[in-house]
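Forum > Structural Biology > Help requests

Title: Can anyone predict the 3D structure of Ankyrin repeat-containing domain?

Hi all, first post here. I have the sequence for Ankyrin repeat-containing domain but no way to get a structure on my laptop. I'd be grateful if someone could post the structure tokens.
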Amino acid sequence: MSLMHPDTSDSFLTSVRVVCRSQPRINVLNHVLQQLDAFLFPSQAFTLPRCVQHGNIRLFRRVLVTLDNDNTRCQFEKIQQYRLAMQAAAKLGHLWMVQQLYQRYPVALSGATALAAGQSGRLPLIQWVYETKRHLLNMNFYAAVYKAFETSASRGDLHTVQWLVKNFSNVVFDIGIPAKEGQLEVAKWVLEEGKYRCRFDVADEVAVRGDLNMMQFLVNRALLDGPSSAPDLAAEFGHIELVKWLSENESKHSWSFTTTAMVCAAKNGHLEVVKWLHENRKVGCTTNALDLAAGSGHLSVLQWLYANRHERCTANAMDNAAMTGYLKVVQWLHNEGARCTTAAINHAAHKNHLNVVQWLHETRDEGCTAEAMDWASKAGHLAMVKWLHVNRREGCTTFAMDQASANGH
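Reply #1:
Sure, ran it for you. Structure tokens for Ankyrin repeat-containing domain below:
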């Protein structure tokens, strides 16, 4: 591939070409165009790595040619720019840029550049590195190859994965990488065609995503080994079908449901999961289920738990609901005889939930402490501070003014 020449017709700035086109006598004087272009182009403001980050090929070409012909820079400075630019280009998968820089400074194609190329997951670039300096891909226990597999397998690029497995047949690849991203076809192919391993925590990642097909594949192929929180995580994120399947296939793996399942499902408002666990599993729950559901504003979950479970909430429930501004939850808990503490108004004031503060002030007797005005001041909630000053007697401490001043309020 030949190097670029600085005075190719498309290398001039657009502004130079447009203006000079209206002046035919000037437009034919190439040396004049070059002088105008050189004067107007802010080449000193751009480094090669910066051009690479911009991803503008035309800008990259201009700065590269300018750097090539710049006699005011020492060779070391030029080489440093070539090296850093090549690494940046490799990371972004820009093969053409890497090749241009390699022609100028072949040594810049190093282990770090190969690792960046692998991270890009771009097969043409990886193949070029393989053909140019194959040993770089073997460095540090095939670090670049692992990076390439991680990137390509995660995005479902089976073609690149196949090339990697074929050309690095001695490398053991992690099926957990495509598995956690839901790339079932990639995971199946690696299982059938390559050397593989599967890290023990991949079941947890699959459970968080609620990927039933992937979980079935991993379990049925006996790829999972070791403890797992998959059942609790599936419940926490509301994946009811996966919860059911894990329960039905509990004997195939060393997992089990715990009280965390219902607690976290309640916290996240997954009422269907809460009901199913209550009816089909005997793990139960704790008062945390009610306290956290209240703090998250899930009134329907809270009401169902009260109607169907024997656990009752603690003072944390109303305190949490007040802090997060769920007035209807606060009112419902009040009607159910729930308790709260001074933290209810304190936290509601801090988070600027004035309607909650006013209702608690008018309805409850717990009151608040000076912390309410202190933290409202720190957060800059002037209307809240004024209301507390007029309607409450706790006042504030020096913390209020100190923190308001420190935060620019």
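DSSP finds 28 helices and two strands in the chain. Residues 1-10 have pLDDT under 50 and may be disordered.
Shout if anything looks off.
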